[in-house]
Every structure is written in C-alpha cells, then in structure tokens.
User: Fold these one by one.
Assistant:
Number 1:
Amino acid sequence: MINEHDLDAWDYYSHIHPEKPMTMNDYQRLAAETAIYSSAHRLLYPALGLAGEAGEVANKIKKMLRDNKFDREGVAAELGDVLWYVAALARDLNVDMQDLAKQNLDKLYSRKERGTIGGNGDNR
Ligand SMILES: [Mg+2]
C-alpha cells in the first residue's frame, strides 16, 4: 500500500531528477525507500548482498573474457546494485554516504601525498 511517506519520497525523487544533481546522501535516502529487509537483519543482509553483487560484477567481467563480448551496460547495472548495498550498509552503520566518500578520498589523497598509494595495510 502506498502511503504518504512513499509519496513524499517519489515527490522528492521526481524533483531531483534530472534537473538537479543528486548528492550521495540523496541517493542513500532514496535507496532506503526501497529497502525491505527486516531490521533484525541489519548489517548482515546488506553485507551479504554487497558480496553477492560484487560477485555479479566479477562474473560479468569473467563472461566478457569467456565470450569475448563487451557488456558495458550489464556491468554498469551490477555496479548500481553494488552501490545500493553500500548505501544500505552505510545506513545501517548510521554513516552518511557523503561522509563515507569524503573520508575515503581524504585517506587516498593523504596516501598519494605521502607516496603510499602502493603497498599493503589499511593504516599506511
Ligand atoms: Mg545484480
């Protein structure tokens, strides 16, 4: 059953697309409207889904090698599924996608400046 919350989400979605660029937090909020897993399965459901979708990306790439056929749209669609699960997992961790993205770039640019992009270890 469609409720007022659904209508608000649709109204919001219809107004940000395509005229206004969607922020990562916009995406996370809108994606959450399509999340139907039980709160009892927070973290676990999106973590498993993320692993599954990452596998689907890898499988598409594998099939491209096997069939010598480029499936750009198929891989892109699977990356979208990966993004959904990243957003859901971040939401379950109470982390904004915008903050997640910024922290990741901060880490990578710090490594770049210090010449430690290559190598191993989370804390380099
Ligand atoms: Mg998929």
Number 2:
Amino acid sequence: MSTESAVSVEISGQGREPVSGTVTAVEISDGQRLRRALRAAGVLFALGLATLPIPIIHLWLPWLFFLASLIVFARVWRRRTLVRGEAGACPRCAALVALTEQPLFWPIETNCEGCGHSLVIRPA
Ligand SMILES: [Zn+2]
C-alpha cells in the first residue's frame, strides 16, 4: 500500500513572483520499494550475465554491471517518497506545470512545457 498526501508548494521562475500550487507526495511501501529496486538492478544484472560469454570484455564488463546493479539497488531502495501530479501554474506563462513521477528531493527543478523556462518548486 502506498499513501498519498498533498503538499503545498511554491513555484518560482526567473524574475517572477512565485505562485502557489500543490504536488502529490506518494509514500511507497517496503514491498513496492523492493520491487522497484529489483527491477532497476535486474536490468543491469542481466546485462552483466549477457556479457559473460564475450571474449576479452568478459574480464571486466560483467563485473562493472554487477557492481552497478548493487549501487542502483541501494539508490532505488532508499527512495521512500515519490512526487507526481500537476503542481500548479507556471509563473511566466500560466501553463499547467505537470511533474512526471520522480523521487522527492527538494527543491524540484523542472522546465515549463509552455514556455520552456526553468522552474523551481519548493515546499510552501
Ligand atoms: Zn511557462
């Protein structure tokens, strides 16, 4: 089970008054975190296995993939909260600022799809 909560945010663009908005923070369960981490690390592990029979590069490339899979597993496992949803209006062009699902790290930096300017989203 994941639990969703609305977080009030402030969206600021270069040289414009910040506008307020809301993002959806999704707290993911340990089971979901494990599945996500295994899926992400599994791709790299499979690539490592696939490169094992290749002469010469089998001496180093599979081990790099295996090491990378451990690092990716640890990084994805640590992500307890994701953020997604429509944050609000762009302070420059008033277009809706939509976030793709991503790990929650403040501040969130994104680009407006309407005007292309960079926006910074902070908790209000
Ligand atoms: Zn814009």
Number 3:
Amino acid sequence: MSDIIFKIDGREVAAQPGETILQAAARIGVEIPTLCYNQKISRTTSCFVCVVKDCKTGKFLPSCSACPAPGQEIDASSDEVKDMRRTALSLLVSEHTGDCEAPCTLACPAHATVEEYVRAGRNGDFKKALEIIKQRIPLPMSVGRVCPRFCERDCRRNIGGKPVSINDVKRLSADMYYDTYMEDLPALNGKRVAIVGAGPAGLSAAYYLRLQGVSSFLFEQMPEAGGMLRYGIPEFRLPKDTLRKELAHFGKMGGIEIRTGQTMGKDFTIEQLEQDFDAVILAVGSWASSSMRIDGEEAAQKGIQWLGDIAGKNWKNCPNPGRTIVVGGGNTAIDCARTALRLGGDVTIVYRRTRNEMPAQAIEVDEAMEEGVKFEFLTAPAALTKNADGSLALSCARMQLGEPDASGRRSPVLIPGSEFKLLADTVISAIGQRTVVPEGFAASKRGFEISADDFTCSGRKKVFAAGDCVSGPATVVEALAAGRKAALSVVDFLNGVPHKAPFEFNVSRGHWRSLAKEDLVYIRQVSDAERIQPEYIPLEERKTTFHELYPTFTPEQVSGEADRCIECSCTGKHDCLLKKHSTAYGVNPDAYKGAKPISAVDVRHKYIIHDKQKCIRCGTCVKVCSEIINKSLLGMMKRGFHTMVDTTFGQGLPDYCVDCGACVKECPTGALDWKKKE
Ligand SMILES: Cc1cc2nc3c(=O)[nH]c(=O)nc-3n(C[C@H](O)[C@H](O)[C@H](O)COP(=O)(O)OP(=O)(O)OC[C@H]3O[C@@H](n4cnc5c(N)ncnc54)[C@H](O)[C@@H]3O)c2cc1C
Ligand code: SF4
Ligand code: SF4
Ligand code: SF4
Ligand code: FES
C-alpha cells in the first residue's frame, strides 16, 4: 500500500498505512504530549492530551489513535491546540488530589527541598543533607539558627502534635561539614558583577552567580560582611565566630571578592559600577530606623544602630544601660531588650498592642520573658523628656484594641485619661526599619523601598536589586531567595535572553489545619516520639553572658527527630506525566472547581501504594495486567464519575505483585507506585 501524504504544521509527511498522527509527528520531530497512550497495550484514548486539529474540518482529534487521511492538514502546535491540551489537563487535575511537593518545601521561601534533606538526615547522611540544603540556602549555619521556621509552621506533623524540628537538620548538617564542604564549581566565564551590600541577599546573589561561572565583587560599608546577621542579630542567637566560619566559604570558592569599608555614595558611585561591571545588584537592606514621632525622640537610641554598635565591640566592654525601655514589638525590639538585659539592664518592652499582635517570633518572646524582660502591653509612648539628673521619663498612655487596620491587626485606640510616666536611663526605639533609597532610584509606592520589577530597578537597564531593600524588612531566608532570583535574572541579562521565572505545577491536599489525622498517608512506619527540645544553657548564664542559647543537637538526636517525618510529597513526583505536562502547559490546578472522588489511600500492600484519588482513569494498569501479564487483577469498577480502578471486591493487590510491578511501572501518575522514596 502506498504512503499517505499529509501535512503537520505545514510540513509534508508520508505516513505508512495504520500509522497514527502521533507516530508520524514523532518521526519528523514534532513533539505531542501523551498521557494515556502506551505502545505496549491496546489504545485507551481517554485523556485527550495528545489533541491536534484537522485544519480543513476544524475538528480536534486524539493524535494517539487518529490515523492521517491523504491531503489532511494537521495543526499540532498552535496556541489554539495548546489551549485545548491545557483544558484537557485542567479537567483531569480538577478531579485530582495529592501533594506533588511536601507542604514544608512549599512553605520555605527559598523552596529548599525540605523533605529530601530531612530524609538524608534520617538516614544519617548529613553531608548529602547539606548538599541538598545548599541548593537553595547558601547560609545554612546562620539560617539553621535564626530562621523563623516557615516550613515547620506548615508541617503536617502539626496535626495532633508538634512539627518536625526541620531547622535542626540544617543546623547540624552545616555544623558538621562546613569546614570540608565545597561545591563543584564551573570555570569563571569572564563576566563580572558588582554587588552593593554583603548581607544575606548580596552574598546569596554572589553565590548563585559563582555557580554559573560569573565573578562578583561585593562592596560593603561595614568593617565586616554579613549585614544584619553580623550587626543586627545578637551573638547569643548567632555567634560571630560561627558567622565568620560560614562567610569564609565564599572566599574559598574563588571568584567572589568582598571589599569592606566601601560605602556607596561616599567611596564610589553607582554610575562608576555601571561603567566598570557587566551588571550591578543593589542589596543594601533596610538600615534607617523608623521614627516614633514623639516629642523628645532624639534622646532615644535607635534600635539597629544601638545593636550594631554593641555588635562591633566586645560585649564585655559595653556599659550597663541601667533601667532600659525598649519601644516596639518586632524582632529588633526583642533583640534590643535581651541584649540590654545581658549587659546588666533592668528591661521593659513597651508595645501598643497585645502579645497576640506582636510581629516578633513567639519563641523569642517566651525566651525574653524567661530571661526576665518585662512587658507593658497596650501602651504607647507620647513624649520623652530628660530629667535634671540625666535620667529619662517616657510619657505613655494606655490603649485598647479597635478595628483591624491595613495590616489586618486590630489597631490600638487611646484610652483618655490613662497617661502615666516610666523612668529610664536608656530608651531604645525599635519600631521598624526602612531603606534609604539611593539617589537616582525610584522608590516603591510606600516610599520605604527601592522600586524593582522582577529584580530590575526601574529605569536602570543593568542594575538589579534584592533583599530587604526591595521587600522591606523581612527575614534571612527571604533575602537568600531574593538574592538567588536576582542572580538568575542577571545571568539571563548577561546572556541576552529575557528572564522568566520558571513555573512548577503543584497540587496540594491542603493546609494541615483543614485535614484530619486520618488524611495522613504513611508509606512507612514513622516515629511517634515527641519533638526534640533544645537543652538551654543555665538561665543565669543566659542572663549574664552572650553565650549561644543552646548547643547543636547530636546526629543521633537529629536522625531520630527526622524519623518523625511522614514524607508527605507524592512518590511519583519525579516521573509523573500529569505533573510534567501540567508544568509545561502552565496549568492552574484551580482552573476548574468540582467534586473530587473521595477514597482512602490503599497502603495495605507491603511495597505498593494505590492512591485512587491520583488516578486519571486512563485504564493503562488494567490493560497492562490483562493484556501483558495475563492476570486481570485490576478492573474498572462502578460507572460515570464514580468509575475507579480497583481489585475484585477491593481486597487489595496480592503480595506476589511485587515480583511484577508492571502496573506501577506504566502508571503515568503516582496513583500506583512503589512505597519508597530516593
Ligand atoms: C535585630 C534584627 C534581628 C533579626 N532577626 C532575624 C531572625 O531571627 N531571623 C531572620 O530570618 N531574620 C531576622 N532579621 C531580618 C534579617 O536580618 C534581614 O531580613 C536580612 O538580613 C536582610 O538581608 P539583606 O541582605 O537584604 O540586608 P542586610 O542584612 O541589611 O544587608 C545589607 C548590607 O548592605 C550594606 N549597605 C547598606 N548601605 C550600603 C551602602 N550605601 N554602601 C555599601 N554597603 C551598604 C549593609 O552594611 C549591609 O551589610 C533581623 C533583623 C534585625 C535588624
Ligand atoms: S500524581 Fe502527579 S500530579 Fe498527582 S500529586 Fe503525584 S506528582 Fe502531583
Ligand atoms: S512531615 Fe515531613 S514531609 Fe511532611 S510537612 Fe513535615 S517535614 Fe515536610
Ligand atoms: S492507576 Fe491505572 S488507571 Fe489510574 S492513572 Fe494509574 S495506570 Fe491509569
Ligand atoms: S488520548 Fe491520546 S494520549 Fe490520551
């Protein structure tokens, strides 16, 4: 029989009789995605993801089963066809329930693959854990100590218990291997980037540029690098020697040079950097203290400057601040209070809302209380005066909570006639920070940050910006994430390609608060031990020295803790075709809302997990078992929406299935899978 001549995307193709459009397209290199198609079995044609268009009739055809007709013109790649594929995928996803990624990983602002490094820690392989961590966290010793633990807030072990102590895996892995660890580095490619500010954002940008072969030169105003890690966060939370050890790694990598004592606007200008370097990244943080807007404010110390001053000296030589009032409710306020306490001060924090509204981390408020810091909640400062004896008087008023403001927190309302005075030797204002927007740069709408769209500064082609100076005061891990993104943006700029943040499709079972214990899926027996608790140094030592609050846990303790992890992500995430195509086609998992089939995950088999909620009902497994293996252990049960792949009478797969596993191998999603993870 003679060949069938037809066209795909305007190109003439000769197809053999019986050949499908999909097969002919593959031969000329036109890629068409498939999901239910499997060459080993008879066609199922159930997903429609392989759809193409017959241009003459306007009909859409499943290319995996449709054979071409002579003279036919097939559109396999237009936006219209891609839209149809996206719709087909969206409909499948609308019935789909699972967790492509673990909630801890999704909650990490840097998207460190938490589940994977926790698993490495469980297996006692802390070097591997560090390798995984460093893919997204270039300062793990610091983050392992000061991170607010976004991942733990979303950990599924919160259901009926306490989250896995994830950050301690990071801390231990980094502490164990930092001296010897070195990444595989590419040769330098001759491109040079200037970075202003050697805080977490600037250092992270330098790190990821180096991983791409780009050298960087960091210009830092202070005598040492580290930004707020060095001059904001006090020694008892992050020892300076630990930070120095961590920062030394950047020097060892080669291709990263830190020039300290270099202030932009004084020692050099941005224009000079623009001229001398291929690109510039601003990572200058938020170093200006916000004003309390009260009379006599000039008699108060500015929180971050006060902390920076102490951090620049040996704490043993710093004076006792005496009766100290710290105004504010954030991390800076708590750090000022705990620092003043350690220097011998009698410390009170004045905050205008209640403890519930405090932006500071709860654990730090608890620790401060334990150490003896006193709190005056629902109290606002009104004026500061200096007494004849040199002491200070802070006039205050009591507040009550009113309606929520723009931040969502209930705003404080003054109680008339409630004025009173607090006496002090030192008053520290720690109510917030903002960025000094450099001259010639546009400010954000609020006016407190540099305006940067996708990390590029408005009106400056080769200047990028990242970290607190763009986001406003945030956290170390967020600054690291921003530094990485800015670096990737710069690399694209240097290569002359437009930067596009990659899209990763993800479905989620939902936040742990919306789930019950029965919703948790176990692929192995996990430890039911309580979460590990740190062993603090004695309280007296805490109150009188800047010694670190508690030592790093031992490898045995951390492995035991990691054994509490349920390993929430889908076993099939690395080779799931539904995820792969949905990522490629930018599918929004919430595009169509509809009922989802509800069915318990079958984990009865020792080695195979059958999650019917992830099944796209392609029928592949049923045909593989009957047509190839000749067993017919699986079948399509029920009708319509309730159709489901199941075993006879739902008795589960027999043990001997482990010898074959053909259905597991061919299932295009994680619906039938091995109960094991790498
Ligand atoms: C007291 C305090 C406690 C904190 N506690 C925590 C915590 O527990 N956990 C947490 O995750 N985050 C915490 N943070 C926030 C965190 O430290 C910051 O979000 C993070 O450091 C921001 O990183 P960055 O690189 O954007 O800015 P920064 O760390 O501020 O670094 C900016 C760098 O730019 C330099 N620079 C500024 N202007 C110039 C100039 N003109 N020329 C040259 N160099 C310049 C600065 O000296 C600095 O080194 C805390 C912050 C403070 C102030
Ligand atoms: S089966 Fe695929 S799409 Fe579904 S949760 Fe698993 S990886 Fe994600
Ligand atoms: S149980 Fe493990 S995988 Fe699940 S959210 Fe917690 S740390 Fe992540
Ligand atoms: S379980 Fe069977 S029907 Fe369901 S997606 Fe996997 S192969 Fe297809
Ligand atoms: S209908 Fe063709 S791959 Fe599913």
Number 4:
Amino acid sequence: MNLERAHREQYLPVEELASYTHSTITADRFTSRRFLDEEWESLWPRVWLMGGRASELEKAGDYICKDIGRDSVLLVRGRDDTIRAFFNVCQHRGSQLQFAGNGQMRSIKCP
Ligand code: FES
C-alpha cells in the first residue's frame, strides 16, 4: 500500500505508520501502556468499533451498555426501530446513565 494513501486513510503520521508496517510485531505492542495510549489517541476513535450485535437489541427499548476504551457507550433500539449510540453520560452534570450490561428501558433517564 502506498504510504501517503495509508496515512490519509489511517490518520497516523507517515513515519509512525511506516514503522508499524515494516517491522515484526513485538510482544510489547500488547502490553505497552504508551502504545495503548497512542492507539486510543490516533486509531480507535477514528474507526468503526463493534458494540454488540443487532440481534441483542430485538425490541424497542433494548439496550447494551458497554465500556469502549475510556468511554461508556449506550446502544439503544428506538421506537422507530433505529439503533443509536450515545455517550453514557447525562448532559447536565455527567452522571452515568446506565451500568454495564444489557437490558430494557422505556426512556433514557438520569438516575
Ligand atoms: S446529572 Fe443532573 S440530571 Fe443528570
């Protein structure tokens, strides 16, 4: 792959991307705090991430609450049958709206 194109598509500095694509993956990639922080800074917020399966949100009001990286995310099937994702935080003073797991709700309310 052309590195300039890869840079545009991946949003990583070309020099950094080159070092990742032409080297052996070492064990520290899986244990390094610095590498994890770089991934959450430069990679994971810019790509699609799986929060669950649509089959887990069968009926209106079904939800999945999941921590993804540093964020808690709420996936909900609405009455219009659309699945939406929200940051799991109240816009008033930042209370967490739901705790991890799946469930059923009538509406999204601050506790
Ligand atoms: S934090 Fe005040 S209403 Fe949610």
